[in-house]
Amino acid sequence: MTRTDIDRRPPATIEDLMYVTGLGRDSVRELVKSGQxxxxxxxxxxxxxxxxxxxxxxxxxxxxxxxxxxxLRPDDxxxxxxxx
Length: 84
Hints:
Layout: E1 12-13, H1 14-21, H2 25-34, E2 40-42, E3 45-48, H3 50-58, H4 74-83
Antiparallel strand pairs: 1-3, 2-3
């Protein structure tokens, strides 16, 4: 990759995704966390690289496969196993 290949535009924000999708802040954050919308957390703030945002707006961005998520902590799982 050369220096000219790097996209130097500032990243898009959660607010930009809110505007484009019409969703609220919490919904957009959850969808970014789950990989269903582009973006990542950087320094405590969610950002969307400009290229990924452009692809999303153009309908060319592909979400990550949905992962199984559990709200249980490891301690909770141990307690459940002991109880059964």
